[in-house]
Design goal:
It is built from five helices and ten strands, in the order αααββββββββββαα. A four-stranded mixed β-sheet has the order 1-6-5-4, with no helix packed on it. It has a four-stranded antiparallel β-sheet with strand order 2-3-8-7, with no helix packed on it. It has a two-stranded antiparallel sheet with strand order 9-10. Helix 4 runs antiparallel to helix 5.
């Protein structure tokens, strides 16, 4: 920052500092015009430009100082100096060629987040269609009045091999959800999709293809195995041990059979244990 001091009163004509800067700039510009090296010429022209800028700033300061001195001759010197400091413009330092720091912009006011439905209304009414034999998908039909009128981004569904999480946000001031994490069979997330109709949603669950074709669905969820212990880390259903499946089937028959049936099955199961 160039230090600007009050111009002392001396005998004879005094050249103002602004005029000194302007004369220096003109002299340098004249010298630059005679140079042949482009880089040297550019350096001098840049210096002359800075001097002209300082000259304009000093000229404003001198005019302000003269006006303040004439209008406030009775004011104490300390007050005059204080007013002079407040009106002094920031001038670039020619010696280090560093620009004066720019004032920081005021931070923008914080924008309040848009209110959205925080709670989900559980979807308890829907229709399940297992499809035809060996069809690639099963379908779930959900009736929601005016669902096609909301943005498509408000309708989402996350599919995993053993679950789906369907959400509709901000439909007439409410948000809806249908979540199932114990499906009767594995699904293929890549081929599963959401179809949006005028007043209806159709969830297409892609069937997982096994060794003998697509699984045969009779129910949407597995009512027997309600926990997650029958699935691996990827969410896929664990392959059942054939021997264990037979034993489970016989146990169901034993529990639901009469006394004679229980006796026959009990003897068979005991033979199976003994090998």
């Amino acid at each position: 920052m160039v230090e600007i001091t009050e111009i002392a009163e001396v005998d004879g004509p005094v050249v103002p500092a602004s005029e000194e800067r302007l004369l220096d700039a003109q002299e340098i510009e004249g010298a630059a015009a005679k140079l042949k090296r482009p880089t040297a010429k550019m350096q001098l022209e840049a210096l002359a430009k800075k001097l002209r800028k300082e000259s304009g700033a000093l000229k404003q300061l001198e005019a302000s100082h003269a006006k303040s001195k004439a209008a406030n001759s009775a004011v104490l010197p300390t007050n005059a100096a204080s007013a002079e400091e407040e009106e002094a413009p920031i001038i670039e330092d020619v010696t280090n060629n560093k620009p004066a720091p720019k004032p920081k912009a005021a931070p923008a006011p914080a924008v309040a987040p848009v209110a959205s439905s925080a709670r989900y209304v559980p979807i308890s009414s829907f229709a399940f269609d297992s499809g035809k034999y060996n069809s690639p998908t099963v379908s779930i039909y959900i009736d929601l009045d005016g669902v096609k009128e909301i943005p498509r981004a408000n309708v989402t569904c996350d599919f995993t091999p053993g679950s789906f999480d369907f959400i509709v946000r901000d439909l007439k001031g409410k948000s809806y959800r249908l979540f199932k994490d114990n499906l009767a069979h594995d699904i293929d997330p890549e081929t599963s999709k959401v179809v949006v109709k005028t007043d209806r949603i159709i969830l297409k669950l892609g069937k997982s293809k096994g060794e003998y074709g697509y699984d045969t669905w009779t129910d949407l969820i597995d009512k027997k195995n309600k926990g997650k212990g029958n699935r691996d880390a990827d969410g896929k259903r664990k392959k059942e041990d054939p021997q264990a499946s037979i034993m489970n089937m016989m146990k169901d028959m034993y529990d639901s059979g009469d006394e004679n049936m229980k006796k026959i099955i009990g003897e068979t199961m005991e033979k199976q244990r003994r090998g």
